[in-house]
Amino acid sequence: MTKKDRNILYIQIGLIAALLLLMWLIGFSSGINFERGFEFVFRTIQALYPFLIVYFVNFYLLAPFLFEKKKYGWFVLANIGVILLANITVFFVDYSNIPKEVPQFAILFGFFFIFILDFIVAFVAVGIRSVLKVNEMRQMLQEEQQKNTEAELLWLKNQLNPHFLFNTLNNISGLIQIDPDAAQDSIAKLSDLLRYTLYESNQDFVPVAGEIEFMENYIDLMKLRCGSNTTVTTDFDIRNGSIKIAPLLFISLIENAFKHGVSNSKPSVIRMEMHTDGNQLFFLCENSNYPKDDKNRSGSGIGLDNLKRRLELLYKGKYTFEKILEDEMYKVTITLKNLTQ
Length: 341
Prior knowledge:
Layout: H1 3-29, H2 34-67, H3 72-86, H4 88-91, H5 104-176, H6 180-198, E1 206-207, H7 208-222, E2 230-237, E3 244-245, H8 251-260, E4 268-277, E5 280-288, H9 302-314, E6 319-326, E7 329-336
Parallel strand pairs: 2-4
Antiparallel strand pairs: 1-3, 4-5, 5-7, 6-7
Helix pairs in contact: 1-2, 2-3, 2-5, 5-6, 5-9, 6-7, 7-8, 8-9
C-alpha cells in the first residue's frame, strides 16, 4: 500500500471514528449516562459493521479488480457473497421464535431492504474511489503538462541564445578591421552579456533592472553596424526595478528592429520604450520598415515566433501583443500584467 493509499485509509477511519463520537455525544446530551453512552456506541457499531465491511471490501478489492476492469457480472455476484457474509447474523438465524403475527412478506422485505442498503454502500465506495482516481489522473496530467511546458521553455531559450550570439559575433567581426580598440571594448561587453545569458537567464524570472542593463549593452553592440543615417533612441523608465520578468524576453524584437529597420542609403529610425505602472510593464519597439529578402541570412525568423510562444506559456491571460505597420513604420507593443517582485 502506498503512502497516499494509507492516508486515504486513515481519513476514512477518522471519519468513522468522528461519526461514532458524534453518536456518543448525541446520546450523552440526551441524558444517557457515561456507561450507557458507550453501550449506545457499541450498539451503533454492531448495526454499522456489516455496511463497513461491504464498503471497505468494495473500495480496496472489488472496485479495482472487478468494477474498474468492467467485470460487472462478477462484481455483482461478489457483492452478493460479501453482503451475505457480512450479514450472516441476520440472514442465517433461527426465526422460529418470531411471532406468527409477523407477516412473511415483512421479513422478506427486511431482507430486501438490507440488500438494497448494502448495494448502495457498495456503489458509494465505487463512486468515491472513482472520484479520487479522476482527481489523481487530473493531477498527473497537470504535472505532465507542467513538465512539458518547462521543457518547451528551455528549448525556446536555447534556440534564442545561439541566435543572439551569432549576430553579435558578426557585428564584432566587422568592427575588428575598422577599429580594433572599439572591437576590444565590444568584446568586453559581449563577455558581460554572455555571463548574463549563462547564469542570470537560467532563472525563470529576473529583476527588470538587470534585464534593462542587458538590453542596453546589447543595443550598444548592435549600433556598431549602423551608419550615421540611423537614429537609435531608448527610454527605459522603470520606477520599480525589482519587478521580475522572463529573461531575454524582448531581445528578438530588438534584433528584428536592427535587421529590418536599418538601410545603408536611407534615413532609419529605431525607438524603444519601457516603463512600469504598478505591477504592469509596457514595452514598445518601433523601427523603419526595410524588410530583407529571403537571401539575407543576417537573422532568423524563429525569434518572433519564440517570443509569442513564450508569452503564451509564461503570461497566458496576462499579456497583450500588438503589431502594426503604419506610415512605413513597424511597431510592436507588449503589455505584461500582474507581475510579481
